[in-house]
Amino acid sequence: MNDVSALPSNHTDCQVVKVPHLVFLVLGMVSLSENLLVVVAVVRNKNLHSPMYMFICSLATFNTISSLSKTWETLMMEFSDVGQLDSRGDSVRRVDDIIDALLCMSFIGCICSFLAIAVDRYVTIFHALRYHNIMTTRRAAAALAGIWALCGVAGAVMVAFCDATVIKIFFIVLFLISLLLILFLYVHMFLLARSHARKIAALPGSAMPHRSLRGALTLTMLFGVFVVCWAPFFLHLLLLMVCVENPYCECYRSLFQLNLVLLMSHAVVDPAIYAFRSAELRNTFRKMLLCSDSPLCYKVKALFH
Amino acid sequence: MSEFNHSNVSGGNAPDPDYKWTYEYYDDDEPVSFEGLKAHRYSIVIGFWVGLAVFVIFMFFVLTLLTKTGAPHPEGAEPCKKRVRLTSCVEDFSPPADPDNRPCLHRPLLDSSVSRSLFHCYVNEEQAQEGSRPRAGARVLGAPRGGLVQGPGRGRSGSPEEGGMEVGVTSARQGAAMLGGNQTDHREAMSLSHFNIPNVVNSEHCSTLGADDLLLGEPPIIMEGECHWPHSAHHMMD
């Protein structure tokens, strides 16, 4: 993604830290394979056609798109460095714009998907009796369609008017609002679970809920990974607008590629903390990868036995 | 600086002939001076990361403390229990109007005492009606685990896609164990008394009740009656 970074006049201070293209390529490949696996698993298994898995599938799709575009861009930059690609052509710039639009779209889509997953879990807990009336498949599909439309438009607009400060402000505000919302929703759910654990502990002969520590750990991990991976990038955007010529801000901005690596690694970690936690999804993976229910695999196995 | 790309700050109007496929760098009109810095030049970076680490650790400790502090209030469950006294074991847990019972709002969902009372209620109703199907019994048996009490066949989608709730509550299991009077079941049920953040709404039927099933190894709460609980049904029929 083309980004802006102030160039220090003195080359010995705060030089831009360059991350080798190989790192981006490896991250992109790993993230792509993981998220593609999740998408295929959700699509193929009929049991997973519920609103919750639809949101997880949407998150995985956005991650797939972002890793695809980032890998594509890294490849083109690699070719351009080697000299194979004429980076001055008009078509190349158009491709570059498309990549940027896809990246913006996937970033916003990821954030919206996190929000959708948090809202879905919230409704599951606090309106459990009416969950199936509130969160019907049709409503979930409509919500997803709205999210995708919003992200597509936002991505296109952002790239078309990328120099306007309004765009960066919008991005940052969106991030902050969703951060706060996600934090609120999860902490509320956590408090309910905690009060219930107390009630269980109040029963005669019940064991101490020492394993409730894991609830805190899970929530910290969910939220902590989100913040650690996304906040540096958004601080970069903020500093870009607020203090362009400050040397301290420049030194922060020189680490832009490291922040981008963090953002990419979030796409790698996402399936582990959202999708792979579900036993049904794991079983589907096992079936898919070990191909235990495909007629082709029976033939393959017959060959070896 | 000639090897770097020069880009128009105010928004490029004409295509730049020196466009290179790389990260764009703005060329400042006044070069930033690094002279006379009072603090370390990476102070923002260090400060940001230290702040982030402190925030995450602080959040973890706050959450951990929340789980440990506070004495359990068994008498607090009584108002909820009275509120959900049923005659037909069919109830709609609408939110209570008065703020005093607001803590009860979410308790009926997961309250073991409530589920036990519902359980008793259902058992009585089962005995009252001859010809009630064991499947229906299993269905409602599955329901109190999530606090969802619906009569057999009442307005439910009933499809495999609709999910149960993997909130690690084993309240009804405890209720069943207690009713059945099986000591090992009771102990086992009590040992499962922990909670978790619902990571998934479990939509599969209850064949996957392993310890690795959930986010934190909790058995799922199946709200839809797709699964049969033969041993629990036996407890119920005793």
Automatic annotation (TrEMBL), chain A:
Keyword terms: Cell membrane, G-protein coupled receptor, Glycoprotein, Membrane, Receptor, Transducer, Transmembrane, Transmembrane helix
Superkingdom of the organism of origin: Eukaryota
Presence of keyword GTP-binding: no
SMART domains recorded: 7TM_GPCR_Srsx
GO (cellular component) term, any one: plasma membrane
Keyword Transmembrane helix: yes
Molecular function in Gene Ontology: melanocyte-stimulating hormone receptor activity
GO biological process: regulation of gene expression
Topology of the protein relative to the lipid bilayer: Multi-pass membrane protein
Membrane-spanning segments: 20-43, 50-69, 98-119, 140-161, 167-192, 213-235, 255-276
Localization per Swiss-Prot or TrEMBL: Cell membrane
Protein's recorded name: Melanocyte-stimulating hormone receptor
Source organism: Oncorhynchus tshawytscha (Chinook salmon)
TrEMBL record, chain B:
Primary location: membrane
Pfam family, one: MRAP
Any one biological process term the GO annotation gives: regulation of adenylate cyclase-activating G protein-coupled receptor signaling pathway
Region (Disordered) location: 143-166
Subcellular location: Cell membrane; Endoplasmic reticulum membrane
Keyword Transmembrane: yes
Any one annotated GO CC term: plasma membrane
Ranges annotated as biased composition (Gly residues): 144-156
Membrane topology per record: Single-pass membrane protein
GO MF term list: corticotropin hormone receptor binding; signaling receptor regulator activity; type 1 melanocortin receptor binding; type 3 melanocortin receptor binding; type 4 melanocortin receptor binding; type 5 melanocortin receptor binding
Gene: LOC112222604
Transmembrane segments: 42-66
Protein name: Melanocortin-2 receptor accessory protein 2
Keyword Endoplasmic reticulum belongs to the record: yes
